[in-house]
Design a protein that fits this description.
globular, ATP-binding, 655 residues, alpha/beta, binds 5'-O-[(S)-butoxy(hydroxy)phosphoryl]adenosine, 21 helices, GMP Synthetase, Chain A, domain 3
Length: 655
């Protein structure tokens, strides 16, 4: 047993002497877990009380994974407001406490802001009134395309306050991706900013929005927040947020919402087609986000919590905004990147704001590990108590570095496995309750019932020391409810391969002790720097280029990003491969989707390996991209086996 595992059994303590008795220990975990799955109505009926209801619920769980009738409802007759749960209910007890610490990209230009719950109440109410004045009503969709500035949180909570459904588009996405999402959810309004400073560079969000809206309805309006004050063009549909907020009232009652009214839509990539709009509703999501935030990070009153994600991803929704604020926490919103102005930035911020819980992605840990220990050692990290990891499997080397160098061997690491679809953590250790194992997400959170299935037969694999695909036997309150506008796609994507179960898309191993290890996606989704990417999306961007005839995209192991994007490209007849064309295609994909989708390697493929019925054999392409072509298996069923030799001879990833 390692030091790390024995340590997590006792107390969770920071080096500055503050010791906290963890909320959950091994015994209470076992007892509560049993209760959560044997009597979900009783368990969630009790924990559903952790948030404030306007009209209390009388029904707890009403869920069906039955083919043809996928129907998920939690607390369905209760009413509440998410914004009031994150703000109003704290005002009497902690109005002057800091709710949000905003850490700007460049502190030589601006100081961090400390926004109290009273401030938050005022700003969110003003933003809500601005939205109302622009005609936004309960049930309307609002796209948020903002940098990591306080206004992003205000916008989310303002929508929630008036019952509008927000859909955040990560500021790194292109105008095309933005336009597709505006149209996809039929948004009435886009909230954006002039520019998004990040890592010392500026993304022109307003001009991106102008471009995106060329392909949208004329009556879509645009609300523009001033971030840098840089020059932008102005059109008839634009409204100046700062001017409107100045004159708006700071009194805006929170509307009564049903537990099952949508709170937000978040687009995410899948194995086929274009990104789908994951719908989360209000009651179950708030219960689940706040409970996981408190227990998984062992959050205690007065702690300073920092999740380094962007609000454009679900991690930012649940663990920068909704979970922490529902718990009355102080949450940090960081505008910058881990390596600007230097590789000490994360640790400088941890020292400055006395961070107690720190939550980031393995890709950032690996990048900072590569920068050297001296960057960490420059700073006083004695307030840290719990470290978190999310987004992809964490390799033991990175885990150990995180544990030893950042956590000084005394901060439990919670490796949290979850998804946009799950709303909150699914598999994770709990600080003080779980004996830690580097690289394993370990145990289900309360109410989560993982099962391992045999991939082809779909049979349940019982017992330990087994591998298969990861499914969930029953619903949990944070589960997505549908795909926006396409309930059939919801059923097809998550409930049709393995009937009666929610299918995660991930492979997993349950080890001899019953701990879970995520082995990666088993579908055509790849995970690049913790960002999820559908290979089909990158392919369709590539074939949209006039010189490209066909393309196949796969992932390959990448030291820092986890997975890199490997694109096989077949050119149109008569087109010549060249380094210029390679550059051109890279730029093309960046502009079609965004910088995160840029292929790392492009191989010119005279042909792709296909079966006689024309299906691309991705298994072979993955192997070649992994530089592991010794075990390609049977290639004799290919229409033209010789293309494989060419692909191997000209492979891009050697060693
Ligand atoms: C996919 C979900 C919600 C978290 C941010 C990503 C992978 C996520 C882990 C982990 C191994 C992980 C899975 C999952 N993943 N966390 N701790 N260990 N893999 O959310 O974009 O919806 O991606 O990320 O493959 O299916 P997402």
């Amino acid at each position: 047993m390692s030091d790390a595992s024995t340590r997590s059994e006792s107390v969770v303590q920071s080096a500055n002497g503050s010791t906290k008795t963890p909320h959950i220990n091994a015994e209470t975990y076992a007892q509560m877990y049993d209760a959560s799955v044997s009597q979900p109505d009783v368990f969630w009926g009790e924990h559903g009380q952790r948030i404030d209801w306007i009209k209390p619920f009388t029904k707890v769980k009403n869920t069906s994974f039955e083919p043809g009738n996928i129907d998920i409802r939690w607390f369905e007759d209760g009413t509440l407001n998410a914004s009031a749960n994150c703000i109003d209910r704290h005002l009497a007890t902690r109005g002057d406490q800091t709710a949000i610490i905003w850490e700007p990209d460049d502190t030589s230009k601006q100081e961090p802001l400390h926004i109290t719950y009273n401030d938050l109440h005022r700003s969110v109410s003003k933003m809500a009134n601005v939205l109302k004045d622009l005609g936004v009503e309960k049930g309307d969709r609002v796209i948020i395309y903002l940098p990591m500035i306080p206004e992003a949180a205000y916008a989310m909570l303002a929508c929630a306050r008036i019952g509008a459904i927000h859909s955040i588009v990560f500021a790194g996405f292109s105008p095309d991706a933005l336009g597709a999402r505006v149209n996809g959810c039929g948004a009435k309004l886009v909230i954006t900013a002039d520019y998004a400073p990040r890592g010392g560079r500026e993304t022109p969000l307003k001009s991106n929005t102008d471009t995106a809206l060329l392909h949208c309805d004329d009556d879509v309006q645009c609300l523009v927040v001033k971030r840098t004050g840089g020059q932008t063009t102005w059109t008839d549909r634009d409204h100046d947020y700062n001017k409107l907020a100045e004159i708006a009232s700071d009194d805006c009652p929170a509307v009564e919402m049903n537990a099952e009214d949508p709170l937000f839509i978040l687009y995410t990539s899948g194995s086929t087609g274009q990104p789908k709009g994951v719908v989360h509703t209000t009651g179950g999501y708030m219960v689940y986000a706040s409970m996981t935030h408190e227990l998984v990070f062992d959050y205690h009153d007065g702690d300073i919590f920092w999740c380094t994600a962007d609000v454009g991803w679900v991690t930012g929704h649940s663990y920068i905004v909704y979970g922490p604020l529902a718990n009355g926490a102080t949450t940090i919103m960081f505008e910058g990147v881990p390596t600007y102005p230097d590789a000490g930035r994360f640790w400088e911020v941890c020292e400055k704001h006395k961070v107690n819980q720190f939550y980031t992605a393995p890709t950032a840990i690996r990048a900072l590990m590569g920068a050297g220990n001296e960057w960490v050692e420059k700073y006083d990290l004695s307030d840290l108590r719990v470290l978190g990891s999310v987004g992809e499997p964490i390799n033991p080397e990175a885990w150990n570095w995180y544990n030893d160098v950042v956590g000084k061997g005394r901060c439990p690491i919670v490796d949290t496995f979850w998804q946009t679809e799950t709303g909150g953590h699914m598999l994770t250790p709990l600080p003080g309750a779980t004996e830690l194992k580097p690289g394993s997400a370990q145990q289900p959170f309360f109410g989560v019932q993982p099962v391992v299935l045999e991939p082809t037969s779909g049979e349940i694999i019982e017992g330990n020391g087994v591998d298969g695909v990861l499914c969930m036997r029953d619903s949990w309150p944070g589960q997505m409810r549908t795909v926006w506008g396409d309930h059939e796609r919801f059923e097809k994507t998550y409930f049709s391969d393995y009937k009666g179960y929610y299918f995660s898309g991930d492979g997993c191993r349950r080890d001899e002790d019953g701990d879970y290890w995520i082995t990666g996606r088993v579908d055509d989704v790849i995970n690049v720097s913790g960002h999820r990417m559908g290979t089909a999306e990158v392919e369709s961007a590539l074939v949209a280029h006039a010189k490209v005839a066909e393309s196949a995209v796969v992932g390959y192991p990448h030291d820092v990003k986890g997975q890199g994007i490997y694109a096989y490209v077949t050119l149109m007849n008569g087109e010549e491969p060249s380094d210029e064309l390679r550059k051109e295609l890279e730029v093309w994909v960046r502009t079609e989707i965004g910088p995160i989708a840029k292929p790392d390697l492009i191989q010119w493929a005279p042909g792709l390996p296909k079966t006689r019925s024309g299906k691309i054999m991705r298994r072979i392409l993955r192997k070649i991209a992994e530089d592991d072509f010794g075990s390609l298996g049977d290639t004799s069923t290919l229409a033209d086996p010789s293309v494989v030799d060419d692909l191997i001879a000209n492979r891009m990833n050697r060693g």
